[in-house]
């Protein structure tokens, strides 16, 4: 028994959509809704991973609507797994391959193991199994969570990823209670990154930004060990909008800052794409109302609901120690004077320079200061109060 | 089958003193299991402690994953099995229930997972001791279930499980019912064969064209709905019909290669020749029952005992053949089935169903006892034998009776 994971495939970044491989490993045969942005990441993920891949799919939209007997869309080998079993299915598959290859019972070669799950299967029921998989650094695997923010396959019920206030069939607005979904959405990739320091790669993406998403899948598969990629998938049926707006909504989620794009590679977090521009101060966040108003699930919102929502997003950007990633701030002061700590802090500054820039309010700079947050960052927010004008 | 071979077999086996769980672990080693996953619950977990030590010492080369719950534990092994790994898993009581979703899909996926079930009372209230209700919960799902009597049978049943379960005509998971404490933790001397003998008995695991691998890009278990589920269930049922023949083949090879296993793979008859009535049951109750049957025989009673070894497949024809010669059968259930026909136990009602179409039907009565790990004593067996004797003599006795319950 060896401690190290088996060899991982080394997959180069795609960089531009024109350079993406032409081959499709997820083809026709699925029966998903028009405008489904959960089917698209399956296609992109399979394209990025290539033919030497085993895909495991939990129960959910991408099983029930997506993989039907006699009309499977999967060109690569695919197997159903149970709703809460993405983590354990990936572990078992990867461990099985590793054992057989080591013992000479199977040709020794790198094979990608990807287990996908929805937000219900992954962020709710299967969270413990995903957590366990991310600690088992001996196995190469990718947990790919497609987040359409509800149990969409079973008729749109509230999940741990459903946004605050959204209408689902389990959270209908009524005469007494306008807001039935009163829980804030779990920050799953940030939580997993914070709790699993040995996990080499964790990222957030969206099929609305396909190259970024495919490159994150490739980086995850090449990292060696267990990895996690979370993708936000606008869902016409669950979010109540015209299917033609799927990609636009995915982009708006990034532009309003409600869903930041980032990757955490070997313990260092970097924003990507539009989120990076926002973090570097090269672009302003759009008011979140622009995103919410395009979706029927927020049609019952009053001004105070939009204001509350904006306040929560502002907190995420202004008060979290790593905005949109680590959901708390630092109370300080911190005074670690050892030589190693100084080296660490310098490294953190250097490694994060790409997204931090010269911007005040860079959370890690606070570690050596007198604690607390630099409120200039918040004061510098020129977006104003979107609720004030209503 | 030659005498020379049997003699040679004996030379290639060593005798060791060990518990039931340690005996299972020895079979896991000789079966060269590829992947195993552990999660603690008494009393099965001794087997995982033994397997972990075998791996740590280099005596078994297997991936060993400590899961975060039984659901994952069983899913890990199910998926490792789908890519061609021989797997071993196990649990007890409510742990087995926590894995129940995986237990439901594994037989319909036709994956030959082998599980040791250290039989334990289900909560609530908590009890470490044996009851068979945990394992019996999967009796309708395609799991093949057998029950063992001692550490030697723990070892033998584990090798049999891989041989039978992995046979392409079968391809079902197999659960080995091991009575908690009485067998999991009791030491007896067992014979352990060498690797060469085991390799002769147990061919490598080969899923053939059902292997999940990039060279064989199949889709396993896509959503079928009403279009195809009936056909898939019928295929599974056809396989269930084939299990008994495969068990017979494996049993005959087992006897030839290892020189033990009894006359019949499905049950053991004890002092049944010329018996008027018999007690009938599974697992560790065999020991006090055999003790009492011997004493009663010394007193001139025409009593015997039949121990059921395979509960699934249920050997209905074979049992009909041997049991219809008795006047009465006292079934001892270490389980309960509230609201069942006659308010009796699970084994009782399966046996009644099996014998219903027989031309001559013996009286069948039921005793429920030894629940929650309570000991079944020879005196209790004496009481049950006496009631069965009276039933055989035509007396009116209660159809179901709970044994040893305080007022």
Topology:
The complex is a heterodimer of chains A (about 400) and B (about 400).
Chain A: H1 39-49, E1 53-58, H2 61-64, E2 78-81, H3 86-102, E3 112-118, H4 119-125, H5 127-135, E4 141-147, H6 188-195, E5 201-205, H7 210-223, E6 226-232, H8 236-239, H9 246-255, E7 262-265, E8 268-271, H10 273-279, H11 288-292, H12 303-318, H13 339-351, H14 353-356, H15 363-366, H16 375-379
Parallel strand pairs in A: 1-2, 1-3, 3-4, 4-6, 5-6
Antiparallel strand pairs in A: 5-7, 7-8
Helix pairs in contact in A: 1-7, 3-5
Chain B: H1 3-11, E1 13-19, H2 20-30, E2 35-38, H3 46-56, E3 63-66, H4 70-82, E4 87-91, H5 93-98, H6 100-108, E5 114-119, H7 133-136, E6 144-147, H8 151-165, E7 174-179, E8 187-193, H9 195-201, E9 219-220, H10 225-258, E10 267-270, E11 277-281, H11 286-298, E12 303-308, E13 310-312, H12 316-323, E14 328-333, H13 346-355, E15 363-368, H14 378-392, E16 400-402
Parallel strand pairs in B: 2-3, 2-4, 4-5, 5-7, 6-7, 11-12, 11-14, 14-15, 15-16
Antiparallel strand pairs in B: 1-8, 6-13, 10-12
Helix pairs in contact in B: 1-10, 2-3, 2-8, 4-6, 9-10, 11-14
Write a structural description.
The complex is a heterodimer of chains A (390) and B (407). Chain A is α/β, with parallel strands linked by helices. Chain A has one domain (17-318): 3-Layer(aba) Sandwich (Rossmann fold), CATH 3.40.50. Helix content of chain A is 35%, strand content 11%. Chain A contains 16 helices and eight strands. By secondary structure, chain B is an alpha/beta fold. Chain B is globular and about 65 Å long. The N and C termini of chain B lie far apart (56 Å). Mean pLDDT of chain B is 96; it is low at 1-8. Classes of the chains: A alpha/beta (390), B alpha/beta (407). Chains A and B meet through β1, β2, α3 and α5 of A and β3, α4, α6, β9 and α10 of B.
């Amino acid at each position: 028994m060896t401690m190290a994971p088996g060899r991982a495939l080394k997959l180069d970044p795609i960089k531009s959509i024109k350079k993406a491989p032409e081959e499709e490993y997820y083809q026709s045969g699925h029966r998903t809704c028009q405008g489904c942005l959960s089917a698209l990441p399956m296609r992109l993920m399979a394209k990025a991973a290539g033919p030497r891949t085993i895909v495991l799919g939990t129960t959910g939209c991408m099983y029930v609507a997506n993989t039907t007997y006699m009309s499977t869309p999967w060109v690569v080998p695919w197997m159903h797994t149970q709703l809460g079993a993405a983590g354990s299915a990936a572990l078992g598959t990867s461990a099985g391959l590793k054992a057989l290859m080591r013992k000479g019972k199977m040709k020794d070669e790198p094979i990608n193991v990807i287990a996908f799950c929805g937000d219900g299967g992954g962020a709710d029921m299967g969270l413990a199994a995903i957590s366990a998989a991310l600690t088992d650094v001996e196995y190469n695997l990718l947990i790919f969570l497609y987040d359409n923010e509800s149990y969409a396959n079973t008729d749109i019920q509230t999940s741990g990823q459903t946004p605050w206030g959204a209408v689902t069939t389990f959270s209908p607005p009524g005469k007494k209670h306008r807001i039935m979904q009163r829980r804030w959405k779990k920050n799953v990739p940030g939580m997993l990154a914070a709790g699993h320091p040995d996990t080499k790669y964790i990222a957030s993406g969206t099929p609305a930004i396909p190259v970024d998403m495919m490159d994150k899948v490739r980086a995850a598969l090449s990292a060696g060990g267990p990895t996690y990629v979370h993708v936000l998938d606008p869902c016409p049926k669950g979010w109540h909008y015209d299917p033609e707006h799927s990609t636009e909504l995915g982009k708006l989620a990034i532009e309003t800052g409600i869903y930041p794009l980032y990757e955490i590679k070997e313990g260092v977090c970097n924003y990507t794409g539009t989120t990076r521009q926002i973090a570097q101060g090269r672009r302003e966040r759009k008011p979140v109302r622009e995103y919410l108003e395009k979706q029927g699930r927020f049609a019952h919102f009053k001004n105070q609901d939009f204001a509350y929502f904006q306040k929560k997003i502002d907190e995420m950007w202004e008060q979290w120690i790593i905005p949109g990633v680590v959901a708390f701030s630092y109370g300080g002061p911190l005074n670690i004077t050892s030589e190693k700590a100084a080296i660490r802090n310098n490294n953190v500054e250097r490694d994060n320079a790409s997204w931090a820039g010269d911007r005040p309010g860079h959370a890690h700079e606070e570690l050596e200061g007198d604690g607390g947050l630099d409120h200039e960052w918040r004061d510098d927010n020129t977006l104003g109060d979107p609720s004030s004008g209503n | 089958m030659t005498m020379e071979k049997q003699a040679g077999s004996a030379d290639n086996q060593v005798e060791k003193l060990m518990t039931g769980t340690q005996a299972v672990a020895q079979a896991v080693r000789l079966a060269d299991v590829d992947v195993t996953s552990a999660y603690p619950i008494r009393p099965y977990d001794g087997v995982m402690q033994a397997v972990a030590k075998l791996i740590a010492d280099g005596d078994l080369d297997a991936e060993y994953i400590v899961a975060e719950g039984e659901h994952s534990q069983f899913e890990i092994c199910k998926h490792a099995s789908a890519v061609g790994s021989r797997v071993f898993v196990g649990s007890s009581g409510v742990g087995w229930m926590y894995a129940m979703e995986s237990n439901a899909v594994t037989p319909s996926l036709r994956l030959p997972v082998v599980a040791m079930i250290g039989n334990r009372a289900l909560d609530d209230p908590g009890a470490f001791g044996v009851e068979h209700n945990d394992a019996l919960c999967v009796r309708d799902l395609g799991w093949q279930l057998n029950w063992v009597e001692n550490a030697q049978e723990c070892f033998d049943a584990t090798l049999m499980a891989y041989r039978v379960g992995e046979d392409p005509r079968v391809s079902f998971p197999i659960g080995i019912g091991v009575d908690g404490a009485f067998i999991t933790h009791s030491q007896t001397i067992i014979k352990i064969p060498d690797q060469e003998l085991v390799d002769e008995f147990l061919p490598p695991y080969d899923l053939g064209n059902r292997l999940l691998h990039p060279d064989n890009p199949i889709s396993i278990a896509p959503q079928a709905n009403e279009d195809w589920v009936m056909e898939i269930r019928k295929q599974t049922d056809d396989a269930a019909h084939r299990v008994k023949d495969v068990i017979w083949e494996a049993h005959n090879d087992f006897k030839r290669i290892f020189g033990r296993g009894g006359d019949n793979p499905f049950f053991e008859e004890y002092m049944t020749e010329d018996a008027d009535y018999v007690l009938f049951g599974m697992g560790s109750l065999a020991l006090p029952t055999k003790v009492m049957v011997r004493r009663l025989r010394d007193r001139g009673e025409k009593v015997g005992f039949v121990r059921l070894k395979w509960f699934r497949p249920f050997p209905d024809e074979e049992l009909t053949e041997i049991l219809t010669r008795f006047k009465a059968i006292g079934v001892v259930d270490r389980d309960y089935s509230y609201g069942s026909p006659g308010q009796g136990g699970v084994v009782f009602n399966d046996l009644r169903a099996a014998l219903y179409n027989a031309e001559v039907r013996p009286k069948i009565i039921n005793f429920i006892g030894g629940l929650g790990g309570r000991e079944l004593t020879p005196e209790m067996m004496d009481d049950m034998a006496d009631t069965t004797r009276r039933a055989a003599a035509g007396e009116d006795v209660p159809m179901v009776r709970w044994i040893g319950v305080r007022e």
